[in-house]
Design brief:
Layout: E1 2-8, E2 11-16, E3 26-35, H1 38-46, E4 48-49, E5 52-53, E6 58-59, E7 63-71, E8 83-86, E9 89-90, H2 96-99, E10 110-111, E11 128-132, E12 136-138, H3 145-149, H4 151-164, E13 171-175, H5 179-190, E14 195-200, H6 203-211, E15 216-219, E16 237-242, H7 247-254, E17 257-265, H8 276-281, E18 285-288, H9 295-304, E19 314-319, H10 323-330, E20 338-342
Parallel strand pairs: 13-14, 13-16, 14-15, 16-17, 17-18, 19-20
Antiparallel strand pairs: 1-2, 1-6, 3-7, 3-11, 3-20, 4-5, 7-8, 8-12, 9-10
Length: 344
């Protein structure tokens, strides 16, 4: 079969890769669609991020959907021909965090397309893959392959929303509106947020946020003081989802947050310096949100029932044989939100 293998920055190749034998509790899946994630772009553009570097050829991709081709001898609840979204998260189930229900903090996590481990964990941008039965989540006929591949980033957004606590009636600010920020808008709206305001520096991102349910958007590139009207009486917002990973975005939002606001940091960037005096004086709660686990099943259910529509975020679909152009478009935030790769 063919796979998309990264060797070095901008060195992405279509290569022949063997398909392993399936075990009793596994499935052989024909991949149909995959979404290009920010981490995939970091590998493609820079060879990694932070201290994580490509040290050997690695198959990219972890946002995928497909169709079951064969079920292992011990699997009797899913048939060949079933369309599925695939969770890329494979915790060990044995460590102390898995036993506490914190699988996203697994000490032996094997997450598709990750160079954090050595040897690297090979990804899912390939024509065929063998997965554990537990990773497969059936999608309805009303959900396209591309939409099903969006279950993974939607899961990240749902986990972030869960980390914020109750959102019913809350006033929410989202800073940074790439695909994750836009999906956080949808998740917060589904959770009952009364008002959602979004900031970004790009018009495409902001227009996408409106399509996903934001009440108002602010282009902070054109309007540096765009949040100033929300700062009266110690602030307007109850919850901040910081999805840009940019220190300036976080600091610029704090004056608009009410005392005891919950700040959920979702975006990953460089190290940040925080105004601790303000955190103390306004009694902010700072919470991180990292990956997901049980939210993947929830994401697929929401897609299956049509309760969240991800179609506005899908900018383009490329055949896997034209993956380099797909990655280059995905890297251009002025032209694309989510770019998909087709493996059909």
């Amino acid at each position: 079969m063919h796979a998309l293998v990264i060797h070095a920055p901008h060195d992405l190749r279509v290569e022949e890769t063997p398909t392993p034998e399936i075990g009793p509790q596994q499935l052989l899946v024909r991949i149909r669609s995959g979404g290009i994630c920010g981490s995939d772009l970091h590998y493609f553009l820079h060879g990694g991020f932070g201290t994580v570097r490509i040290r050997e050829p690695m198959i990219l991709g972890h946002e995928v959907s497909g169709v079951v081709q064969e079920a292992g001898s011990g699997v009797n609840d899913i048939l060949p021909g079933t369309r599925i979204a695939i969770s890329p998260s494979r915790p060990c189930g044995l460590c102390q965090y898995c036993q506490q229900g914190l699988q996203n903090h697994c000490l032996d996590m094997r997450y598709y397309g990750s160079a954090m481990r050595s040897p690297h964990v090979q990804g899912a941008f390939r024509q065929q893959i063998v997965i554990d039965r537990s990773q497969a989540h059936e999608v309805s006929a009303s959900v396209s392959d591309g939409e099903a591949a969006m279950a993974e980033p939607l899961s990240v957004a749902l986990h972030a929303a869960r980390r914020a606590g109750a959102l019913l009636g809350r006033r929410v600010l989202v800073t940074g509106c790439g695909p994750i920020g836009a999906l956080i808008v949808a998740a917060a709206r589904r959770a009952g947020a009364a008002t959602i305001v979004v900031t970004d520096v790009g018009e495409l991102a902001l227009s996408s946020a409106l399509q996903m349910g934001a009440d108002e958007v602010v282009n902070v590139a054109d309007n540096l003081d765009g949040l100033s009207r929300f700062t009266a009486n110690k602030g307007s917002f109850d919850v901040l989802f910081e999805a840009s990973g940019n220190e300036r975005a976080l600091r610029g939002a704090l004056d608009a947050m009410r005392p005891r606001a919950v700040i959920v940091q979702v975006g990953l960037g460089g190290e940040m310096t925080l105004p601790v005096n303000m955190f103390v004086a306004k009694e902010f709660e700072l919470r991180g949100a990292f990956r997901f686990h049980e939210e993947f099943a929830v994401a697929v259910e929401l897609l299956n029932k049509g309760l969240i529509d991800v179609k506005p975020l899908i900018s383009a679909t490329f055949p896997y044989t034209d993956a380099t152009n797909a990655f280059e478009l995905a890297a251009d935030r002025s032209r694309a939100m989510k770019v998909l790769v087709s493996f059909e």
